[in-house]
Amino acid sequence: MGRKWNNIKEKKASKDANTSRIYAKFGREIYVAAKQGEPDPESNQALRVVLERAKTYNVPRAIIDRAIEKAKGGAEENYDELRYEGFGPNGSMVIVDALTNNVNRTASDVRAAFGKNGGNMGVSGSVAYMFDATAVIGVEGKSGDEVLELLMEADVDARDILEEEDAAIVYADPEQFHAVQEAFKTAGVTEFSVAEIIMLAQNDVELPEDAQAQFEKMIDALEELDDVQQVYHNVDLGE
Fold first, then answer.
1. Residue 150: CATH number of its domain
2. Do 49 and 197 meet the contact criterion of CB atoms below 8 Å apart?
3. Where would I find the TACO1/YebC-like N-terminal domain in this sequence (predicted)?
4. pLDDT over threshold 70, residue 13
């Protein structure tokens, strides 16, 4: 499962280069999560997950507070949560999650991003069955054995624990997201290199060099769309 972490690192590095767009997307996602429940992360689990992920992308506190205050103020911006599934070059698989106030616009934009880069949209369910919702939590400065021990002491189950460079990465069921974090916090860990619930491909595929270049162009086009929040895929992007 080690290549999965490479994909996440690649995604974070790409997003670091587009901070204003990323901050805007987080602002929208935080607002929607806060509107759907209490605007308090202690009682709103969806909001808490978004805020934990926002920390790993260094989203400024002002943007987080503004989105939550907007939700508290009763703003009437309405967004639909959409999921698109499709295929890239050589049968690679892609999942696109979006928040939009114009479904027709978003569908058209996503379809164009696929079509112009050697891909095509599929029907609902054509790709998602090859992915699993997974909590991914990473910490630096601890070994896999240390992480296993502290999770066992907290009676928390994990699917897998990997050591990648200077970090230990925990893969767990989504329901274990907060339990894993609390186990780390009890052990004195306060910073996470990654803290997300993602759609994780059951198997990665490798593409020939020309196809991978085209695939990466397609992923960039999808992630650059304002309405798109997350893009998941099953291609090993390497180091």
1. 3.30.70.980
2. yes
3. 3-74
4. no
